[in-house]
Request: fold
Amino acid sequence: MFEAIQRFFRRFGKSEPGGDSGLWGERIAEDALKAKGFRILGRRVRVGRRDEFDLVARDGDTLVFVEVKTRESELFGRPMESVNAHKRHVLSRAAVRYLKAIKTRPPSFRFDVVEVIGIPGEPPEEIRHIENAFPLDRRYRVP
Reply:
């Protein structure tokens, strides 16, 4: 019972500076990717007025667009399941815009998803990195 009350206050109170579980998950994901040898190029990278990447990184010569999904538990399914067709379309549109904006296009790029399961302020229960989680939406062409 006491744990349930603590969990409630952690979830709805400010359990960390900023109190945002999304930011917490992004920091955890960034640390996990750095530990794998990725070079982080940007955080919360905005492309246009409405598109944003959680992280943009390099894995060797590959440019990686990273979507981070943070959940307290998997009671209602895996976080990856929320990267639906609409979200993949939005990320594909943003990737094409990003590639058009940079001076030198990398030889390859991909979309990764990092799932972070846990509660802000505590060590994460699980971190899963899904490489090449989905392809570029077929409605878009690489510039």
Summary: Residues 11-18 have pLDDT under 50 and may be disordered. Residues 2-134 form a domain with the Trna Endonuclease; Chain: A, domain 1 fold (CATH 3.40.1350.10). The CA atoms of residues 39 and 49 lie 26 Å apart. Strands lie at 39-47, 51-59, 62-71, 108-117, 126-134.
